[in-house]
TrEMBL record:
Pfam families membership: HSP20
PANTHER family: HEAT-SHOCK PROTEIN 20 FAMILY MEMBER
Family: Belongs to the small heat shock protein (HSP20) family.
Span of domain SHSP: 24-136
Organism the protein comes from: Catenulispora yoronensis
Entry protein name: Hsp20/alpha crystallin family protein
Length: 144
């Protein structure tokens, strides 16, 4: 595989400066997520390809949920000569600020095929409920 050293220098400079060749700012997110509400729970999915389960850490303090993941290099060793390395490596984290209407005591997490899925239930106090309307007859029956 042939390499162009000037192209590599341009790529490295763009990564360090956070710009593309056109000069527009870019910041690739190594931990993209999708979030949605499904019934009585919020679902958040993080893409973590190439991250092993033991390299993922999920913490919650007050209403701040923090997900940390470490993508370690593959193909490392004394006899390995890396030809191309474009995937971000290292420790990455994302924080989500959860509202008081979510039940942070019952969060469920699973990891499958490089996707971390968190299911955060809506708290009972935040679920919609019907309010009974009293009539004058009801009030008289209570007072009797």
């Amino acid at each position: 595989m042939r390499t162009d050293p000037f192209r590599d220098l341009d790529r490295i400079a763009a990564q360090l400066l956070g710009t593309t060749a056109a000069g527009t700012w870019t910041r690739p997110n190594p931990m993209p997520l999708d979030a949605w509400r499904s019934g009585d729970e919020f679902v958040v999915c993080f893409d973590l390809p190439g991250v092993s389960l033991d390299a993922i850490d999920i913490d919650i303090e007050r209403n701040v949920l923090t997900v940390k993941a470490e993508r370690r290099p593959t193909g490392s060793g004394d006899d390995v000569e890396v030809q191309v390395s474009e995937r971000p490596l290292g420790v990455f984290s994302r924080q989500l600020f959860l509202g008081d209407t979510l039940d942070t005591e019952h969060i469920k997490a699973d990891y499958d095929a490089g996707v971390l899925t968190l299911r955060i239930p809506v708290a009972e106090k935040a679920k919609p409920r019907k309010i009974q309307i009293a009539t004058a007859d009801d009030r008289q029956a209570i007072n009797a």
